[in-house]
Design brief:
64 residues; 89% helix; elongated
Length: 64
């Protein structure tokens, strides 16, 4: 796994956390929930390529 990918995921996490805290303090809990859900989807999209590589490696190792 690449260090740049880890930094991207950490950056998204920090931005989502700050946005959720600001929205929660402003009384916008519904929007905070949507922001956190969007953050999860964004991180999953970043990790899709790495998961494909992981599955290919597992297939090669076990000869599936």
């Amino acid at each position: 796994m690449d260090l740049a990918l880890v930094m991207k995921v950490a950056g998204v996490g920090m931005i989502v956390t700050v946005c959720c805290q600001v929205l929660s303090k402003a009384g916008r809990e519904e929007q905070a929930t949507l922001v956190s859900l969007a953050g999860i989807v964004l991180v999953l999209m970043l990790l899709v390529g790495e998961l494909g590589t992981l599955f290919d490696t597992v297939r090669r190792v076990f000869g599936i």
